[in-house]
């Protein structure tokens, strides 16, 4: 499960960087179509990985909190993880709605297509785009806070929180 944690983190930051970069592409850029295609394809695959992760999380117990953690730290960590999961699914669903607002399917690297379930809905891409922007920004901010918390535990508290997150 540690590997999935880091894979999701890497993919989320990569998608954020790609998304931030591709919004400024011009029609004449060779990446104008390729960048969004990669972004959508990886986003769909991330959705399936996150579904697996949620099922796994409910079917298996996670590691017990480090005994030296204060109660508020444990509650805050669980709340942050919960909000991260919700924001990730909001970002992925809103990204799907942006891409399928015109009724077209999403081709995932040419391997398979994810059809539109909404058909054509005028203006949906604008609303979904706003939701996508704010949810991804929230993910980024919360992920940075999460990382800072792990560093705090490692360098200030000198406990094994970070080493457990690294799979040691």
From TrEMBL:
For this UniProt record, the keywords arranged alphabetically read as follows: Cell membrane, Electron transport, Heme, Iron, Membrane, Metal-binding, Transmembrane, Transmembrane helix, Transport
Cofactor section: heme b
Residues crossing the lipid bilayer are 38-56, 77-98, 131-151
Q: GO BP, one example?
A: respiratory electron transport chain
A cellular component term (GO) from this record? plasma membrane
Q: State the superkingdom.
A: Bacteria
Keyword Nucleus appears in the UniProt entry: no
An example molecular function term from Gene Ontology annotations: heme binding
Name the family.
Answer: Belongs to the cytochrome b561 family.
Q: What is this protein called?
A: Cytochrome B561
Record PANTHER family:
CYTOCHROME B561 (PTHR30529), CYTOCHROME B561 HOMOLOG 2 (PTHR30529:SF1)
The record, for InterPro entries, names:
Cyt_b561_bac/Ni-Hgenase (IPR011577), Cytochrome_b561_oxidase (IPR052168), Di-haem_cyt_TM (IPR016174)
Protein localization = Cell membrane
Gene3D superfamilies per record: Transmembrane di-heme cytochromes, Chain C
Q: For the Cytochrome b561 bacterial/Ni-hydrogenase domain, which residue ranges apply?
A: 3-167
Organism annotation? Marinobacter nitratireducens
Q: Which topology term describes how it sits in the membrane?
A: Multi-pass membrane protein
Q: Keyword check for Mitochondrion, yes or no.
A: no
């Amino acid at each position: 499960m540690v590997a999935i944690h880091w894979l999701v983190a890497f993919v989320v930051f990569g998608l954020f960087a790609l998304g931030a970069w591709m919004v400024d592409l011009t029609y004449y850029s060779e990446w104008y179509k390729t960048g969004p295609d990669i972004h959508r394809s990886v986003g769909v695959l991330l959705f399936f990985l996150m579904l697996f992760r949620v099922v796994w999380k409910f079917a298996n117990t996670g590691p017990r909190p480090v005994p030296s953690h204060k109660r508020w730290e444990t509650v805050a960590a669980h709340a942050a993880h919960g909000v991260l999961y919700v924001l990730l699914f909001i970002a992925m669903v809103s990204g799907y709605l942006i891409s399928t607002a015109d009724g077209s399917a999403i081709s995932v690297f040419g391997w398979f297509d994810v059809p539109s379930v909404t058909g054509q809905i005028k203006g949906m891409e604008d609303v979904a785009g706003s939701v996508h922007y704010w949810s991804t920004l929230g993910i980024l901010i919360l992920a940075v806070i999460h990382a800072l918390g792990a560093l705090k535990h490692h360098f200030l508290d000198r406990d094994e929180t970070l080493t457990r997150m690294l799979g040691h």
